[in-house]
Amino acid sequence: MKFLLGALFTVVVAIAGIFIVVISGVSNVGADQEHSPMVYNFLETARNRSIENASKDIIVPDLEQVDMISTGGADYKDMCAGCHLSPGVEKTDFSESLYPKPPNFTKADVVERYQTEAGAQQSFWAIKHGIMASGMPAWGASHDDDRMWAMVAFIRSLPELNESQYTMLTTRLDDDMLDMSFDGNMDMSDGGSGMQH
User: Fold this and answer.
1) Alpha helices of the chain — where are they, by DSSP H?
2) How far is the CA of 60 from the CAs of 64, 75, 76, 145, 152, in angstroms?
3) Positive or negative: CA dihedral 69, 105, 129, 76
4) Closest Cα to residue 170, out of 55, 89, 59?
């Protein structure tokens, strides 16, 4: 009985201590101050276990399809590269200013974890739902699953790309770029000049 009372007292004191620290405002929440190793490890473990648990039943499509990889490139460039970088870019204002630092997806050792089915599930879940207090937005609010899977496929291939390949795979071609028609005011038959005199 004394043991249970002692344990209960310890829990109450710990909760009261945490409450006092929180309401006192002495805890620095600035993104330019690192967590203590114990707090950082606790938060990393909580995040990783949460994502693993939430993503375990997600069905992974065939991420090796070339068209899936290529369609994910433009979205990656627009929405991810500022934080997660691109070939030839070592840092950006975003990547340097966020805490914790976003993973650099141009590095093979970072992306290696996403090559497994569980890793692909977790990557998709993080893109779709975001991660609280990390700067990672929930892209599922504005994008369908197919677009997010295409980003996962692209991320998995990103470490293998050089700058030229990256540029080719991330250029977004819209209807205006593809529409090569001329308006009726131009006469292309006048000696090939395209101008009327």
Assistant:
1) 2-24, 37-55, 66-79, 81-84, 93-97, 108-111, 117-129, 145-157, 163-170, 175-178
2) 11, 19, 19, 11, 10
3) negative
4) 89
Does residue 100 have a cis bond before it (omega within 30 degrees)? yes
Question: What is residue 148's predicted lDDT score, i.e. its pLDDT?
Answer: 97
Coil, helix or strand at residue 107: coil
Distance of CA 65 to the CA centre of its chain: 20
38 φ/ψ angles, rounded to the nearest 5 degrees: -65, -45
Q: How confident is the model at residue 41 (pLDDT cuts 50, 70, 90)?
A: very high
Please give the backbone phi and psi of residue 173, each rounded to the nearest 5 degrees, phi first.
Answer: -95, 120
Q: Could you give the CA distance from residue 46 to residue 33 in angstroms, rounded to a whole number? A: 20
Phi-psi region of 192 (alpha: psi -120 to 50; beta: other; left: phi over 0): left
> Two tokens at 84?
């997660």
d(CA 75, CA 110): 20
Task: Give the span between the Cα atoms of 28 and 195, in whole angstroms.
Answer: 67
DSSP 45: H
Cβ contacts of residue 80 below 8 Å, gap of 6+?
Answer: 105, 151, 155
pTM score, whole prediction? 0.78
Question: Looking at the DSSP assignment, which residues form a beta bridge with residue 136?
Answer: 131
- Tokens representing 44 are 């990393």
